[in-house]
Design brief:
The protein has helices at 18-30, 34-46, 51-71, 77-100, 121-132, 146-156, 173-184, 201-207, 216-232; strands spanning 108-114, 136-144, 160-164, 191-195, 211-213. It is α/β, with parallel strands linked by helices. Helix 1 (18-30) packs antiparallel against helix 2 (34-46).
Amino acid sequence: MSEPLSYEEDFDLRDLTDEELVEQMYDDLYNGLRDEVVEGTQILLERGWSAKRVLDEALVAGMGIVGVDFRDGILFVPEVLLAANAMKGGMEVLRPLLSQSSSETIGKILIGTVKGDIHDIGKNLVSMMMEGAGFEVIDIGINIPVETYLEELEKHRPDILGMSALLTTTMPYMKVVIDAMVERGIRDDYIVMVGGAPLNEEFGRAIGADAYCRDAGVAVDTAKSLIARRRAA
């Protein structure tokens, strides 16, 4: 039986055909190999691939495999964070080129953890998976008060507002933000998605959110379907 290829054995990504290289990038994303993903991204660009094609066919498609295995319990948060970090490496190469070509994204999401809560692993994972799926992500951080949410919504005009909380004591603050949006008459301008360990669907409905998402994989699928539904309407 032949030994698997390894980078220590002078395995050169440039020796691969485009198709083989993309397959290898899927594996490298899955294994969280950031440097190799960056190199693969650069090679495809050198071969005349557009930034959008590299994004869609190599990075987004590769992260799709990661997302499915995360949803199915084959991969766990640490592995997905590594994969997302590798994806981020490729994105750093592509981002300047994508902005030059004014490439269309699926949509724009503004995301932050609510006031009183400094937990960010779940939020970061959702941000990375969303970016991996082709969304423009504006991550406004942790411990975000209602005034900041309103200012950032006004400034960026996203399609989606995402709010995260990991503490039962900070969960109710999500309703404070949604109520403030209602008062300003802007609630219906945005899709509101909420998530975090102590939340559930019933809570999401009770506070007036459009969706509760139990994990990052579900968040991506939900965001895509809600945006598609809104645009169709």
